[in-house]
Specification:
Layout (H helix, E strand, L loop, with lengths): L2 H113 L3 E4 L6 E7 L21 H14 L6 E10 L2 E8 L5 E9 L3 E10 L8
Helix pairs in contact: 1-2
Length: 231
Protein backbone atom coordinates (compact mmCIF):
# COMPACT_ATOMS: atom_id res chain seq x y z
CA UNK A 1 0.00 0.00 0.00
CA UNK A 2 1.29 3.40 -0.94
CA UNK A 3 1.78 6.28 1.48
CA UNK A 4 -0.89 8.31 -0.27
CA UNK A 5 -3.51 5.65 0.37
CA UNK A 6 -2.55 5.54 4.04
CA UNK A 7 -2.78 9.29 4.39
CA UNK A 8 -6.15 9.35 2.64
CA UNK A 9 -7.57 6.73 5.00
CA UNK A 10 -6.21 8.57 8.04
CA UNK A 11 -7.78 11.80 6.88
CA UNK A 12 -11.17 10.13 6.37
CA UNK A 13 -10.98 8.50 9.79
CA UNK A 14 -10.03 11.75 11.42
CA UNK A 15 -12.90 13.58 9.74
CA UNK A 16 -15.33 10.82 10.72
CA UNK A 17 -14.12 10.95 14.33
CA UNK A 18 -14.51 14.73 14.44
CA UNK A 19 -17.98 14.52 12.93
CA UNK A 20 -19.00 11.89 15.48
CA UNK A 21 -17.63 14.04 18.31
CA UNK A 22 -19.49 17.12 17.06
CA UNK A 23 -22.72 15.14 16.74
CA UNK A 24 -22.29 13.82 20.29
CA UNK A 25 -21.72 17.34 21.59
CA UNK A 26 -24.83 18.62 19.78
CA UNK A 27 -26.90 15.73 21.14
CA UNK A 28 -25.69 16.48 24.67
CA UNK A 29 -26.48 20.18 24.28
CA UNK A 30 -29.87 19.33 22.77
CA UNK A 31 -30.62 16.97 25.65
CA UNK A 32 -29.68 19.63 28.19
CA UNK A 33 -31.94 22.17 26.46
CA UNK A 34 -34.81 19.67 26.42
CA UNK A 35 -34.34 19.00 30.15
CA UNK A 36 -34.32 22.76 30.88
CA UNK A 37 -37.48 23.32 28.84
CA UNK A 38 -39.24 20.43 30.56
CA UNK A 39 -38.27 21.83 33.95
CA UNK A 40 -39.57 25.27 33.03
CA UNK A 41 -42.82 23.81 31.73
CA UNK A 42 -43.37 21.55 34.73
CA UNK A 43 -42.48 24.03 37.47
CA UNK A 44 -42.98 27.46 35.91
CA UNK A 45 -46.10 26.52 33.93
CA UNK A 46 -47.94 25.16 36.98
CA UNK A 47 -47.45 28.46 38.82
CA UNK A 48 -48.69 30.37 35.78
CA UNK A 49 -51.85 28.29 35.72
CA UNK A 50 -52.37 28.88 39.44
CA UNK A 51 -51.72 32.59 38.97
CA UNK A 52 -54.05 32.62 35.99
CA UNK A 53 -56.81 31.11 38.13
CA UNK A 54 -56.31 33.51 41.04
CA UNK A 55 -57.91 36.59 39.39
CA UNK A 56 -61.05 34.55 38.71
CA UNK A 57 -61.25 33.50 42.35
CA UNK A 58 -60.66 37.06 43.49
CA UNK A 59 -63.32 38.26 41.05
CA UNK A 60 -65.81 35.75 42.44
CA UNK A 61 -65.06 36.99 45.97
CA UNK A 62 -65.76 40.59 44.91
CA UNK A 63 -69.07 39.61 43.38
CA UNK A 64 -70.06 37.75 46.52
CA UNK A 65 -69.05 40.67 48.69
CA UNK A 66 -71.03 43.08 46.51
CA UNK A 67 -74.07 40.85 46.78
CA UNK A 68 -73.68 40.73 50.54
CA UNK A 69 -73.24 44.49 50.74
CA UNK A 70 -76.29 45.07 48.54
CA UNK A 71 -78.27 42.63 50.61
CA UNK A 72 -77.18 44.31 53.83
CA UNK A 73 -77.90 47.74 52.36
CA UNK A 74 -81.38 46.69 51.23
CA UNK A 75 -82.04 45.15 54.63
CA UNK A 76 -80.84 48.30 56.40
CA UNK A 77 -82.93 50.48 54.09
CA UNK A 78 -85.95 48.28 54.76
CA UNK A 79 -85.38 48.49 58.50
CA UNK A 80 -84.93 52.27 58.25
CA UNK A 81 -88.15 52.58 56.24
CA UNK A 82 -89.99 50.48 58.82
CA UNK A 83 -88.58 52.61 61.65
CA UNK A 84 -89.52 55.81 59.82
CA UNK A 85 -93.00 54.42 59.14
CA UNK A 86 -93.40 53.52 62.80
CA UNK A 87 -92.13 56.97 63.83
CA UNK A 88 -94.47 58.73 61.40
CA UNK A 89 -97.38 56.63 62.68
CA UNK A 90 -96.49 57.46 66.27
CA UNK A 91 -96.15 61.16 65.43
CA UNK A 92 -99.52 61.13 63.66
CA UNK A 93 -101.15 59.42 66.61
CA UNK A 94 -99.51 61.89 69.00
CA UNK A 95 -100.70 64.82 66.86
CA UNK A 96 -104.24 63.45 66.79
CA UNK A 97 -104.13 62.85 70.53
CA UNK A 98 -102.83 66.37 71.14
CA UNK A 99 -105.59 67.81 68.93
CA UNK A 100 -108.25 65.79 70.71
CA UNK A 101 -106.81 66.77 74.08
CA UNK A 102 -106.79 70.45 73.07
CA UNK A 103 -110.39 70.23 71.93
CA UNK A 104 -111.42 68.48 75.13
CA UNK A 105 -109.52 71.07 77.15
CA UNK A 106 -111.27 73.95 75.36
CA UNK A 107 -114.66 72.31 75.83
CA UNK A 108 -113.97 71.67 79.51
CA UNK A 109 -112.85 75.28 80.01
CA UNK A 110 -115.99 76.54 78.28
CA UNK A 111 -118.15 74.30 80.43
CA UNK A 112 -116.38 75.59 83.54
CA UNK A 113 -116.87 79.18 82.41
CA UNK A 114 -120.56 78.60 81.68
CA UNK A 115 -121.29 76.80 84.96
CA UNK A 116 -121.49 80.09 86.84
CA UNK A 117 -123.33 81.88 84.06
CA UNK A 118 -127.00 82.60 84.67
CA UNK A 119 -128.98 82.73 81.44
CA UNK A 120 -132.45 84.07 80.75
CA UNK A 121 -134.51 83.13 77.71
CA UNK A 122 -135.62 86.06 75.58
CA UNK A 123 -137.68 86.64 72.46
CA UNK A 124 -136.01 85.54 69.18
CA UNK A 125 -135.03 88.33 66.85
CA UNK A 126 -136.40 86.57 63.74
CA UNK A 127 -138.06 83.37 62.52
CA UNK A 128 -134.70 81.64 61.94
CA UNK A 129 -133.99 81.58 65.68
CA UNK A 130 -135.09 78.48 67.60
CA UNK A 131 -133.94 79.76 70.99
CA UNK A 132 -132.47 82.99 72.35
CA UNK A 133 -131.04 83.81 75.75
CA UNK A 134 -128.98 86.42 77.54
CA UNK A 135 -126.37 85.73 80.23
CA UNK A 136 -123.99 87.31 82.68
CA UNK A 137 -120.78 86.27 80.89
CA UNK A 138 -117.61 88.03 81.97
CA UNK A 139 -115.35 89.83 79.44
CA UNK A 140 -112.73 87.38 78.24
CA UNK A 141 -109.79 89.73 78.81
CA UNK A 142 -107.56 91.38 76.23
CA UNK A 143 -103.95 92.23 75.43
CA UNK A 144 -105.00 95.37 73.55
CA UNK A 145 -104.16 98.74 75.07
CA UNK A 146 -105.27 102.28 74.45
CA UNK A 147 -108.31 103.48 72.47
CA UNK A 148 -110.06 100.58 70.75
CA UNK A 149 -111.18 100.43 67.13
CA UNK A 150 -112.89 97.23 66.04
CA UNK A 151 -111.21 95.35 63.17
CA UNK A 152 -112.48 92.25 61.41
CA UNK A 153 -109.35 91.22 59.51
CA UNK A 154 -108.16 87.66 60.06
CA UNK A 155 -105.09 87.33 62.28
CA UNK A 156 -105.75 90.53 64.23
CA UNK A 157 -106.17 90.61 68.00
CA UNK A 158 -109.86 91.50 67.61
CA UNK A 159 -110.55 88.45 65.42
CA UNK A 160 -108.79 86.12 67.83
CA UNK A 161 -110.54 87.56 70.87
CA UNK A 162 -113.95 87.62 69.15
CA UNK A 163 -113.55 83.93 68.37
CA UNK A 164 -112.58 83.22 71.96
CA UNK A 165 -115.60 85.10 73.29
CA UNK A 166 -117.94 83.27 70.89
CA UNK A 167 -116.42 79.98 72.03
CA UNK A 168 -117.11 80.81 75.68
CA UNK A 169 -120.72 81.81 74.97
CA UNK A 170 -121.63 78.85 72.74
CA UNK A 171 -119.50 76.09 74.26
CA UNK A 172 -117.93 75.28 70.87
CA UNK A 173 -114.17 74.68 71.12
CA UNK A 174 -112.12 77.18 69.13
CA UNK A 175 -110.47 74.42 67.06
CA UNK A 176 -113.93 73.03 66.25
CA UNK A 177 -115.42 76.37 65.20
CA UNK A 178 -116.24 77.84 61.79
CA UNK A 179 -116.51 81.64 61.75
CA UNK A 180 -119.13 82.44 59.12
CA UNK A 181 -119.77 86.13 59.62
CA UNK A 182 -118.94 89.20 61.70
CA UNK A 183 -121.00 92.38 61.42
CA UNK A 184 -121.28 95.71 63.14
CA UNK A 185 -123.91 95.57 65.89
CA UNK A 186 -123.52 99.19 66.99
CA UNK A 187 -120.88 101.28 68.74
CA UNK A 188 -118.15 98.85 69.89
CA UNK A 189 -120.55 95.96 69.31
CA UNK A 190 -120.27 92.94 66.99
CA UNK A 191 -122.68 90.19 65.90
CA UNK A 192 -120.92 86.90 65.05
CA UNK A 193 -122.39 83.89 63.24
CA UNK A 194 -120.49 80.69 64.06
CA UNK A 195 -120.99 76.91 63.98
CA UNK A 196 -119.17 73.72 64.84
CA UNK A 197 -117.24 71.95 62.07
CA UNK A 198 -120.06 69.45 61.57
CA UNK A 199 -122.45 72.43 61.12
CA UNK A 200 -124.98 70.77 63.41
CA UNK A 201 -124.85 73.68 65.88
CA UNK A 202 -125.27 77.21 64.50
CA UNK A 203 -125.22 80.32 66.67
CA UNK A 204 -125.57 84.07 66.41
CA UNK A 205 -123.57 85.69 69.20
CA UNK A 206 -123.90 89.31 70.33
CA UNK A 207 -120.69 90.80 71.73
CA UNK A 208 -119.80 94.15 73.34
CA UNK A 209 -116.36 95.68 73.87
CA UNK A 210 -115.44 96.62 77.44
CA UNK A 211 -112.42 98.89 77.70
CA UNK A 212 -109.32 97.17 79.10
CA UNK A 213 -111.36 93.97 79.70
CA UNK A 214 -112.07 92.75 76.19
CA UNK A 215 -115.10 91.32 74.42
CA UNK A 216 -118.12 90.30 76.49
CA UNK A 217 -120.90 88.03 75.17
CA UNK A 218 -124.33 89.47 75.94
CA UNK A 219 -126.79 87.29 74.00
CA UNK A 220 -126.82 84.01 72.10
CA UNK A 221 -129.34 82.86 69.48
CA UNK A 222 -129.53 79.26 68.28
CA UNK A 223 -130.27 79.29 64.55
CA UNK A 224 -132.43 76.86 62.59
CA UNK A 225 -130.44 77.40 59.38
CA UNK A 226 -127.13 79.06 58.61
CA UNK A 227 -128.30 82.30 57.01
CA UNK A 228 -124.71 83.41 56.39
CA UNK A 229 -123.45 80.28 54.66
CA UNK A 230 -123.85 81.55 51.08
CA UNK A 231 -122.86 85.16 51.69
Amino acid sequence: MSDNDKNSRLDKFEKRRKNTKNISILLIIGGILIIILLGIWLFGGGNDEENANQPDEASEDIVINEDNENSNTEENDSNADNENSDTDSENTEETEDDSNNDQKSDEENNEDNNENVETEEVEPSDDNVSKAYTGNWEPIGTEQEGPHTTTYEEGTADRQELKQAASVATGIAENDMIEWWYENGGDQKVIATVSNNAQTEIYRVYLSWIDEKGWQPTKVEELIENDRKNM
